[in-house]
């Protein structure tokens, strides 16, 4: 009796944020397999025709229209700025209405933005097209997809989040060579018009997404009649309200403030680097001495590394807590940039640069979606994460222009040193988050 009383006392006095070990995502059936396939395919296409567009067409637009580099890449920056302003609103809309409607609207906007870009002849129409693409990116890329999965699967969505990034990680690998090849055949305008048609392929995929919410059924709700019998399986994309839900690690207001601040710092810095590398990785490699075609193919290895790292997480990472995964991923960023310093002398270092960076960025993309599931309440995932990511979108909007300025004044190696410093800063933030919210031993 005394021993049982002592055990109960220890359970009550254990710190709340250490009370639960990480439990991997629940049964895959909670999120239908076709949903994962549809979202994975749409991420491959949407990233390729929007976010990675400037990396392959930027120099061609400069040459054709005779604009300054800052003017051309400023369009991409404007799109990222619009993503930031739209982020909280889009997050709330997905929480309220589901991802199917919002992501479908994003597909149409992506096609419209590509069309506008292809026919633009002035800065006004060029920037208007990028504004359209900015809204489209916020409605279709990972943050929208993660919020959609969180709404469908709640805290069980972790595995599905990892899976959809497998194809999304190959977007640069697929679309940089595709864009380069199409430009040689039909020019950059014709190539971007081809992107319009490709963007519309994602519309039926988004329309087919489940519209249910975790903990609800399509036929019954607290306000509409009795709940289904326990023997009845849940609707696709839903789960019974009685399913066990792990408590968030950040449970008090102070803990949410600390966790939210560190998460925002990490993801803001990762987004800044991501925007910089998407816009300038190819030009950095050419500046270090690689031929243009070789630079395109070497830079495309970034996508291969992203997907290989994400596949490893899908296969072997189910028992790895997102806090630990972030700490594994972050050292790869500064290592990749340091390797890039020797890219002009050794091909192996030129290859190591995009692959190390891609692997680290690929895993951090997963933690971008799964850390909030572990740290915060999943019911307000879209709106809360949308607010936390707002600084990242705003700051990353300046990244293409800032890095263009750094390259012009410090050279490619100077830009890589700046990136390595920022990667080390991300590592420090991940370590602080892991130390503060490290999970305790499994409880029984």
Automatic annotation (TrEMBL):
InterPro entries cross-referenced by the UniProt entry: MFS, MFS_trans_sf, Proton-linked_MCT
UniProt keyword list: Membrane, Transmembrane, Transmembrane helix
Basic and acidic residues: bias regions: 1-14
Regions crossing the membrane: 44-61, 73-90, 102-121, 188-209, 257-275, 281-301, 322-341, 347-367, 388-407, 413-433
Signal peptide positions on this chain: none
Top-level taxon of origin: Bacteria
Protein name according to UniProt: MFS transporter
């Amino acid at each position: 009796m005394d021993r049982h009383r002592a055990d109960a006392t220890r359970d009550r006095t254990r710190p709340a944020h250490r009370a639960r070990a990480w439990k991997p995502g629940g049964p895959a059936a909670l999120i239908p397999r076709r949903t994962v396939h549809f979202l994975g395919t749409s991420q491959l296409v949407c990233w390729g025709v929007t976010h990675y567009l400037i990396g392959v067409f930027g120099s061609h637009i400069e040459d054709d229209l005779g604009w300054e580099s800052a003017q051309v890449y400023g369009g991409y920056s404007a799109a990222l700025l619009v993503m930031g302003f739209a982020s909280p609103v889009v997050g709330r809309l997905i929480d309220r209405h589901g991802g199917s409607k919002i992501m479908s609207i994003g597909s149409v906007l992506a096609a419209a933005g590509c069309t506008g870009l292809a026919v633009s002849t002035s800065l006004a129409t060029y920037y208007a097209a990028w504004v359209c693409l900015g809204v489209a990116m916020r409605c279709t890329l990972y943050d929208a997809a993660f919020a959609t999965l969180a709404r469908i699967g709640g805290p069980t969505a972790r595995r599905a989040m990892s899976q959809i990034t497998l194809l999304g990680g190959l977007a640069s690998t697929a679309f940089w060579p595709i864009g380069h090849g199409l430009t040689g055949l039909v020019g950059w305008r014709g190539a971007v018009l081809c992107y319009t048609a490709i963007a519309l392929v994602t519309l039926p995929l988004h329309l087919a997404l489940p519209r249910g919410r975790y903990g609800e059924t399509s036929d019954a709700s607290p306000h509409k009649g009795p709940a289904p019998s326990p023997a009845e399986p849940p609707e696709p994309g839903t789960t019974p309200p009685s399913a066990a839900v792990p408590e968030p690690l950040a449970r008090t207001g102070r803990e949410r403030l600390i966790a939210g601040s560190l998460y925002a710092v990490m993801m803001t810095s990762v987004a800044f680097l991501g925007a910089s590398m998407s816009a300038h990785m190819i030009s950095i490699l050419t500046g270090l001495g690689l031929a243009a075609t070789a630079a395109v193919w070497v830079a495309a290895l970034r996508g291969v590394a992203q997907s290989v790292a994400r596949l490893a997480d899908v296969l072997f990472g189910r028992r790895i807590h997102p806090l630990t995964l972030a700490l594994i991923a972050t050292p790869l960023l500064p290592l990749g940039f340091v390797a890039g310093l020797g890219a002009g002398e050794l091909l192996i270092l030129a290859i190591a640069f995009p692959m190390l960076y891609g692997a680290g960025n690929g895993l951090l993309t997963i933690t971008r979606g799964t850390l909030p599931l572990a740290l915060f309440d999943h019911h307000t995932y879209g709106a809360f994460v949308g607010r936390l990511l707002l600084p990242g979108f705003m700051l990353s909007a300046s990244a293409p222009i800032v890095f263009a300025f750094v390259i012009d004044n410090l050279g490619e190696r100077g830009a890589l040193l700046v990136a390595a410093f920022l990667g080390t800063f991300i590592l420090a933030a991940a370590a602080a988050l892991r130390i503060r919210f490290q999970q305790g031993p499994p409880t029984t």
